[in-house]
Specification:
This protein has a five-stranded antiparallel β-sheet, covered by helices on one side. A two-stranded antiparallel ribbon has the order 6-7. α2 (about 30-40) runs parallel beside α6 (about 145-155). The chain is an alpha+beta fold. It has helices at about 5-15, 30-40, 90-95, 95-105, 105-115, 145-155; strands at about 25, 50-55, 60-65, 70-75, 80-85, 125, 140-145. The chain has a domain at about 5-105 and about 145-155. The relative contact order is 0.17. The mean pLDDT is about 90. Helices cover about 35% and strands about 25% of the residues. β2 (about 50-55) and β3 (about 60-65) form a beta hairpin.
């Protein structure tokens, strides 16, 4: 088991309020096992503790051994450390404009929210077709779909 930092555990236990206007959504405790099982199909997956999913089905995970946060950008087929140390996750993700520009597709997210509407808790914005299958990462390829099935598709491609 790869326990989450206390700050993340506390946030999830207190309802896991989304951050960045719903872009980063915390995985409810009841869904962690299902998300982990889906992620195991990806060659990128390193077995860390998943705890949040973005509006585009990117997954945040915690590596307790190295005390670092990973971001699995499954649509792009990448995974890498984005932050080290548990204390500053919320402050950095919420307020570090440089990090946001480097990691998140916030302008596409805002456009998708405006045109496709706000996501339900079990939904994400999906690319049809997935970029790995010839689709593009732009508004004309976006739709809404269920997060877990979409995550399963992405994991089967990486």
């Amino acid at each position: 088991m790869n326990p989450l930092p206390k700050e993340i555990q506390d946030h999830i236990q207190q309802g896991g309020q989304d951050i960045l206007d719903g872009y980063v959504r915390f995985i409810p405790q009841r869904d962690i096992a299902a998300v982990r099982e889906i992620l195991e199909a990806s060659a990128l997956w390193k077995g860390f503790a998943p705890f949040a999913i973005t509006a585009f089905a990117d997954v945040f995970a915690w590596d307790a051994e190295s005390e670092s946060f990973w971001l699995y950008r499954l649509v792009d087929g990448t995974a890498h450390v984005v932050l080290s140390g548990p204390k500053y996750f919320f402050m950095t993700v919420k307020y570090d404009d440089e990090l946001q520009d480097a990691l998140f597709d916030l302008s596409l997210y805002r456009e998708a929210r405006k045109k496709l509407g706000v996501l339900q808790p079990d939904e994400c914005y999906i690319f049809e077709p997935v970029p790995a299958l010839g689709g593009s990462k732009d508004m004309k390829s976006l739709n809404k779909g269920l997060t877990l099935p979409y995550l399963g598709i992405l994991c089967s491609l990486t």
